Amino acid sequence: MSRELIEKLLSKLPAKNPRLVLRDLSEKVLTRGEFKLELCPLVTLYSRHGHLHHGRLVGRTSDKDGYESFILAGYLVNTPLPSEVIYVDGESIVAVNVHSFESEVSQLTSGTISHRPNEEAPSRLALKRFTESLNENKKKQGKIFPSIMVDWNSLPENSAAYLNLKDLVEVLVQTLNKIAVDKLGKSALASIEVIEISHEANLPITVKKVQGGLALDLDFTHSLHSSLGEKLEASINTVL
User: Fold this and answer.
1) Of 71, 31, 58, nearest to 232 (Cα)?
2) What is the 3-state secondary structure (H, E, C) of the chain?
3) Dihedral sign, Cα of residue 231, residue 39, residue 110, residue 130
4) Label partner for 139 (CA 20 to 30 A): which of 1, 105, 194, 240?
5) Backbone torsions φ then ψ of 207, nearest 5 degrees
6) Which residues of 213-231 are buried (b: 16+ CB within 10 A; e: fewer)?
7) Which of 131, 104, 74, 134 is nearest to 13 (CA)?
8) What is the pTM of this model?
9) Where are the domains of the chain?
10) Which fold has domain 3-108?
11) By the 8 A CB rule, do 215 and 188 touch?
């Protein structure tokens, strides 16, 4: 990366509690449809007791009492693949080192910058193929899922909008999977035939029930919500 791009990223970084940083990074892992180890954030955690933990952040757990822990896939020296799993107490963490931070720019900047500066946007045709393949895969799997439709006429023709749409659709699929985890969730989704996604200038994520399905509207030229998965799930649950 150039000095200019690094300075741009650093200038947008807000001061955060280390645990909040890890929660935001964990969301990236948990909301991605397909798990890929190489895309999990590489971090080093420092505890108040002087312990150091290094590895890829692969998960986060919390219970009803508020106890929180983070799961790392750890590497021993000169091993290309993880050889240990480390569970780190959230309350013990006093600092976190995020390696290759430009890969985690959206989470670290709370969505102020959505993507890596050198990330290539998919074409409009590639996005159409992507959404169509998702719908076809659901049919083949026999799952009762709403079809995902995009109002292409409303979508601005720029890279930021294309990247944001791809991210939104990926998180939307993951969110629907979470809702359909039990009979009640599956029954609620069965009444929804289609989710139509549209661009509307200066509008935050808005979900409303319409005839035959749901309408999901937002401004695709703005950075997506930093807690996109939680925001989508809450919005959809409200109208089901």
Assistant:
1) 31
2) CCHHHHHHHHHCCCCCCHHHHHHHHHHHHHCCCCCCHHHCCEEEEEECCCCEEEEEEEEEEECCCCCEEEEEEECCCCCCCCCEEEEEEHHHEEEEEECCHHHHHHHHCCCCCCCCCCCCCCCHHHHHHHHHHHHHHHHHCCCCCCEEEECCCCCCCCHHHHHHHHHHHHHHHHHHHHHCCCHHHHHHHHCCCEEEEEECCCCCCEEEEECCEEEEEECCCCCCCCCHHHHHHHHHHHHC
3) negative
4) 240
5) -120, 130
6) bbbbbbbbebbbbbbbbeb
7) 104
8) 0.58
9) 3-108, 124-239
10) SH3 type barrels. (2.30.30)
11) no
- Residue-wise pLDDT for 150-165, tens only, equals 999 999 998 889 988 9
Q: Quick one: pLDDT at residue 32?
A: 57
Give pLDDT, residue 112: 57
CB 137: neighbour CB atoms within 10 A? 12
C-beta neighbour count of 129 within 10 angstroms:
12
Strands 147-150 and 194-199, bridge-based pairing: parallel
Residue 217 to residue 215: CA distance in whole angstroms? 6
